[in-house]
């Protein structure tokens, strides 16, 4: 379906082109810095094309490659388990509270909604995870806290609520069990919503470093983003702390600028490749509700 | 239509909820520090400790060398200790350090230690959470600049160590000079073991050797900060493109404050209150309203206009980047200590030799002793053994060097009698020896003079302490004023302190805004506390 380029459309396109450029340009700059020679960076500042080409940044990062490989493993594992389990649980919860014939629909919806407004905070979370669930240094500490987000449940519920009750009714009349209705009728019907929520969940897991910061000490279980966060922060922390002078800390030995940018590329890379594959569904998921209006 | 408007409502409320969610999360962060009290109240019950006391009475009766004697170890129950401390980045070979540490500690105090290093950027958040949750860890590293020692001691996060030190830390107590123990006292009690190191500061300029040779500079005439001007002028004339002196956005005033006769009390990033360092009555005042600051601002204004100062100074975050790129020469510091030439030259001048031009004697500020401290948690199940361990770390050179530098041949090479070169790729290169214990027990880094520690100890003993050495300012009633003053400082200081703006125009504005932000209240409260502190001496 081809569309003619009218004036209004051209303006819209131009605006989105500008937004896209505004997002791509900093990223290109990061790539350029990661491939620049450290000394030339200090002398000439950031350039769109490396003044003096050098892969030292990547070499430095890959020298500690086993840390990165481990971090990748942890993050991928957590993302896969977390997204799949989270998606299933989110869909189940949302489906339950979306069924109009469910008696406790309203109180349960409010219960889910309530946690969006009020939550325990970090300290109770920390106490629960370390003292009662004993999940310190466990991969589960990275999975469980993000498993169900009330926000995604609400999105899912909004979508599932639009599936006509008559379909479910009719399948019931045909003798399908509740499990069968859910897995064979409801889930296939809500594929766009599942992909949308699944993608958001997996981004959440991929980008999470805070749970790692709180619960992970074991260097072999550090997720990728926490590794990145540490690399980026180490220098800033010392430079911001005037006291570093007192302690004779040799800042020159900390990861260089190009190495930190190389780490950024290494950490961001896969998601950028994965995203376009899902994008089709993602757009579909966002617009399905609108089309039905 | 009905369903669609329902849908819209849902999305709308979800959005609102999302915002609220964010706010709630922020609020919780802010409250973290308070929730500590509740956790500690629960720990006031010390029956567990009493029982533990009974168990280790064998150690107690031995008194003087409870930890040093291997025969003791067999009489002690085996315990596990956990130790949270600061470490830069992950060290891949930490486990082999832990194994080697445990070999020593098992033999000497029949305890194993679980090392739990935390990165600098995460330390505050993580340790505040750990403390507030009431977790039963044993030893935690703390300081006056990260995971606040005084505040947490006041809140009861740490165990008072006075009795434990007398029983299980006799060697440790004797190994440090008395003034160090005075430094860690909060409300009359010792809450932590200070890691002894060079505690002095000295203000002055850092000048690269090649510039001195090239322009035949005579640094012996530099007695006040403005005396460096002729040197700046000479450099500027010969090399008009270079910045003879490099400043960051904080300017020089705070770093060279003592050389201008003022001693300051740490409150904000640029300390706003102080007193004349010859004044025995310790009369506090707003340092930015002083004639000294006015004079300083006028001098650097003149410098800035003549091009002596790097033009980007008011936005520059670090002098290192400018000097390393070879765009400027002279810098300044308040940490011109013996032995720091090496790190200064590496950090700022790519390893080129530097000369210090000090403007003051060696100084001891109010609280250098709490810059790095190891404290025992109030929730520790084995405080006696933790004390024995701290005693061991501070007196056993083998253990201390193992923690600081790793295993010989694997993580470092010996290049002299007592000098080591750390292998950058060895899997354990942490560079923070001052986190673990008495740094004078350690090896020297390659490039430091063999007598560095003797000289540092001597300067520690001979340095001029401030008139309020040991005073700790409790700022808990002033949080709003301090935040306001800080934001005024952030707004005006980059311009005024680097000379980028004209003090004749901006200084009156600045002082007026400070007044409105409540600086007088801070001065009054600090004066009250200082007077009370003096009276108690």
Helical proportion of chain A, percent range: over 70%
Strand proportion of chain B, as a percent range, falls in 5-15%
Question: Number of DSSP strands of chain A?
Answer: 0
Give the number of helices of chain A: 14
Q: Per the principal axes of the C-alpha atoms, what is the gross shape of chain A?
A: globular
- The multimeric state of the shown protein is heterodimer
Number of helices of chain B: 21
CATH class of the domain at 38-199 and 368-465 in chain B: Alpha Beta
Number of strands of chain B: 19
What summary fits the major beta sheet of chain B? 5 strands, mixed
CATH homologous superfamily caption of chain A: MetI-like
Sum up the overall morphology of chain B in one term: globular
User: In angstroms, what separates the terminal alpha carbons of chain B?
Assistant: 79 Å
- State the CATH class of chain A: Mainly Alpha
Please explain how this structure is put together.
The complex is a heterodimer of chains A (about 290) and B (about 525). The longest helix of chain A is centred in the last third of the chain and has 36 residues, at about 255-290. With about 290 residues, chain A is mostly helical. The model of chain A is unreliable at about 290-293 (pLDDT under 50). Chain A contains 14 helices and no strands. Chain A has one domain: MetI-like (MetI-like fold), CATH 1.10.3720.10. In chain A, helix 5 packs antiparallel against helix 8 and helix 8 runs antiparallel to helix 11. Chain A has helices spanning about 5-35, 40-45, 55-65, 65-100, 105-115, 120-130, 140-145, 150-160, 165-175, 180-190, 190-205, 210-215, 225-240, 255-290. In chain B, helix 1 packs across helix 6 and helix 19 (about 480-500) runs antiparallel to helix 20 (about 505-515). In chain B, the strands form 6 sheets. Chain B has a 5-stranded mixed β-sheet. Chain B has a 4-stranded mixed β-sheet with strand order 8-12-7-13. In chain B, strands 9-10-11 form a 3-stranded antiparallel β-sheet, covered by helices on one side. In chain B, strand 4 (about 185) and strand 5 form a beta hairpin. Chain B has about 525 residues and is of the alpha/beta class. Chain B contains 21 helices and 19 strands. Chain B has helices spanning about 1-45, 45-55, 55-60, 70-75, 95-110, 120-135, 150-155, 160-170, 170-175, 180-185, 210-215, 230-240, 290-305, 320-325, 340-350, 385-395, 395-405, 450-460, 480-500, 505-515, 520-535, and strands at about 80-85, 110-120, 140, 185, 190, 190-195, 205-210, 245, 260-265, 275, 285, 330-335, 355-360, 365, 375, 410-415, 420, 445, 465. Helix content of chain B is about 45%, strand content about 15%. Chain B has a domain at about 40-200 and about 370-465: Periplasmic binding protein-like II (D-Maltodextrin-Binding Protein, domain 2), CATH 3.40.190.10.
């Amino acid at each position: 379906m081809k569309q003619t380029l009218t004036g209004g459309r051209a303006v819209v396109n131009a605006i989105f082109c500008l937004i896209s450029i505004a997002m791509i340009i900093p990223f290109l700059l990061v790539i350029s810095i990661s491939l620049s020679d450290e000394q030339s960076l200090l002398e000439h500042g950031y350039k769109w094309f490396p003044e003096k080409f050098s892969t030292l940044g990547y070499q430095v990062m890959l020298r500690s490659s086993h840390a990165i490989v481990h971090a990748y493993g942890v993050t991928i594992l957590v993302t896969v388990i977390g997204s799949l389990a989270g998606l299933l649980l989110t869909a189940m919860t949302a489906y339950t509270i979306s069924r109009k014939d469910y008696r406790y629909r309203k109180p349960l919806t409010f219960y889910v909604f309530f946690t969006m407004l009020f939550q325990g905070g970090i300290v109770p979370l920390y106490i629960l995870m370390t003292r009662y669930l004993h999940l310190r240094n466990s991969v589960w500490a990275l999975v469980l806290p993000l498993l169900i987000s009330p926000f995604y449940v609400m999105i899912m519920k909004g979508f599932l609520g639009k599936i006509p009750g008559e379909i479910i009714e009719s399948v019931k009349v045909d003798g399908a069990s509740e499990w069968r209705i859910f897995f064979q009728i409801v889930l296939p019907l809500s594929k766009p919503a599942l992909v949308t929520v699944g993608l958001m969940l997996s981004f959440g897991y991929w980008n999470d470093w805070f749970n790692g910061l709180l619960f992970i000490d074991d260097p072999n279980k550090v997720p990728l983003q926490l590794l990145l966060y540490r690399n980026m922060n180490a220098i800033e922390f010392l430079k911001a702390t005037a006291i570093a002078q007192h302690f004779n800390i040799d800042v020159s030995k900390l990861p260089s600028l190009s190495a930190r940018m190389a780490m950024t590329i290494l950490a961001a890379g896969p998601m950028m490749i994965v995203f376009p594959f899902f994008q089709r569904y993602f757009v579909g998921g966002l617009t399905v509700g609108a089309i039905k209006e | 239509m009905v369903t669609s408007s329902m849908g819209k409502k849902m999305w709308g409320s979800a959005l609102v909820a999302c915002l609220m969610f964010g706010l709630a999360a922020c609020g919780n962060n802010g409250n973290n520090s308070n929730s500590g009290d509740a956790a500690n109240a629960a720990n006031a019950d010390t029956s567990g400790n009493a029982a533990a006391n009974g168990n280790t009475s064998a150690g107690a009766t031995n008194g003087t060398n409870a930890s040093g004697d291997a025969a003791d170890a067999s009489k002690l129950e085996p315990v596990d200790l956990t130790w949270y401390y600061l470490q830069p980045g992950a060290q891949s070979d930490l486990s082999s350090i832990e194994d080697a540490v445990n070999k020593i500690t098992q033999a000497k105090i029949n305890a194993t230690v679980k090392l739990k290093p935390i990165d600098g950027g995460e330390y505050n958040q993580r340790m505040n959470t750990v403390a507030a949750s009431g977790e039963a860890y044993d030893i935690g590293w703390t300081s006056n600049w990260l995971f606040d020692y005084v505040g947490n001691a006041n809140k009861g996060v740490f165990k008072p160590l006075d009795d434990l030190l007398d029983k299980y830390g006799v060697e440790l107590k004797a190994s440090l000079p008395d003034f160090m123990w005075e430094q860690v006292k909060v409300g009359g009690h010792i809450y932590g073991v200070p890691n002894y190191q060079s505690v002095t500061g000295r203000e002055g300029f850092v000048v690269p050797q090649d510039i001195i040779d090239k322009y035949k500079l005579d640094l012996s005439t530099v007695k006040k900060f403005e005396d460096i001007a002729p040197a700046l002028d000479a450099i500027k004339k010969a090399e008009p493109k270079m910045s003879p002196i490099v400043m960051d956005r904080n300017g020089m005033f705070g770093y060279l404050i003592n050389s201008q006769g003022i001693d300051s009390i740490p409150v904000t990033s640029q300390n706003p209150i102080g007193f004349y360092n010859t004044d025995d009555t310790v009369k506090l005042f707003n340092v930015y309203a002083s004639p000294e600051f006015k004079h300083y601002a006028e001098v650097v204004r003149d410098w800035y206009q003549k091009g002596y100062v790097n033009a980007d100074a008011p936005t520059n975050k670090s002098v290192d980047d400018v000097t390393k790129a070879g765009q400027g020469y002279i810098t300044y510091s308040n940490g011109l200590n013996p032995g720091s030439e090496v790190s200064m030259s590496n950090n700022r001048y790519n390893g080129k030799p530097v000369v210090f031009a000090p403007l003051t004697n060696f100084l001891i500020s109010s609280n250098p002793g709490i810059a790095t401290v190891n404290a025992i948690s109030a929730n520790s199940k084995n405080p006696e053994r933790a004390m024995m361990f701290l005693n061991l770390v501070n007196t056993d050179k083998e253990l201390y060097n193992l923690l600081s530098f790793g295993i010989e041949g694997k993580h470092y090479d010996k290049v002299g009698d007592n000098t080591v070169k750390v292998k950058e790729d060895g899997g354990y290169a942490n560079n923070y020896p001052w986190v673990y214990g008495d740094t004078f027990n350690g090896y020297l880094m390659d490039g430091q003079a063999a007598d560095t520690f003797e000289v540092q100890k001597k300067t520690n003993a001979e340095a001029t302490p401030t008139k309020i050495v040991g005073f700790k300012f409790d700022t808990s009633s002033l949080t709003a004023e301090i935040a306001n003053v800080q934001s005024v400082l952030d707004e005006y200081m980059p311009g005024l302190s680097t000379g980028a703006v004209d003090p004749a125009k901006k200084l009156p504005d600045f002082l007026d805004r400070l007044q409105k932000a409540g600086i007088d209240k801070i001065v009054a409260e600090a004066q009250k506390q200082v007077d009370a502190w003096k009276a108690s001496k």
